[in-house]
Design brief:
By secondary structure, the chain is mainly beta. It has 2 domains: 1-125, TolA/TonB C-terminal domain, CATH 3.30.2420; 135-183, no CATH class. Helices cover 14% and strands 36% of the residues. The strands form 5 sheets. A 5-stranded mixed beta sheet has the order 1-7-6-11-4. Strands 2-3 form a two-stranded antiparallel sheet. Strands 5-8 form a two-stranded antiparallel sheet.
Length: 183
């Protein structure tokens, strides 16, 4: 189910309150639902499928970002999608299709998979259309927590991240770790 909450100056936005608050209808329909920000073990994107970018949109130069809130079931299935904001209304259906075709791991609370709401963004039409591939300008060495070093733990962490148009990392997620302590 797609809920779009009004058009304001060309973008789609929730009209009342914080757009990331869990809507009352979701709280009723999905008992115990939590925002991913409230969970230690957050839902994670495992795979996102991008539907084909239509030639019509490409020819019109329409591309951009759609921000959505998604209900993830305890089995990792996308139950519902709510559009928070879109750079262009013609991108909404593609973004929602992409989210519905994606696979997630469920959020967990006290070791139990639960319904959770995840806020994410979908880039439509710009993912692999770089004229010049992005290059790393700087890199920060990760801090290795003392308690892990003292315990003799070492391992690997695979991180996925979003780089904004200014070249700054906007969000980073540990998608794979060799040990749970590295989440």
């Amino acid at each position: 189910m797609l809920l779009v909450f009004g058009v304001i100056a060309g973008s789609l936005r929730a009209q009342n309150g914080n757009p990331l608050d869990i809507p009352a209808e979701w709280a009723e329909k999905y008992p115990g639902i939590k925002r991913s920000a409230e969970l230690k073990n957050k839902p994670r994107l495992e795979r996102r499928d991008h539907p084909p970018y239509p030639d019509e949109l490409r020819q019109r130069g329409i591309k951009g970002v759609v921000r959505v809130a998604v209900v993830i079931s305890p089995k990792g299935k996308v139950e519902e999608v709510r559009v928070i904001e879109a750079d262009h209304p013609d991108l909404v259906d593609l973004a929602v299709s992409s989210i519905h075709a994606s696979r997630f791991t469920a959020g967990r609370e006290n070791g139990r998979a639960i319904y959770s709401q995840l806020a994410t963004r979908v880039n439509v039409g710009g993912n692999d259309e770089y004229e010049v591939a992005p290059k790393v300008r700087s890199q920060v060495k990760p801090e290795y927590p003392y308690y892990l070093r003292r315990a003799g733990l070492s391992g690997r962490v695979k991180v996925e991240f979003i780089v904004n148009t200014e070249g700054r990392v906007e969000a980073a997620y540990a998608v794979e770790t060799s040990h749970p302590a590295f989440r």
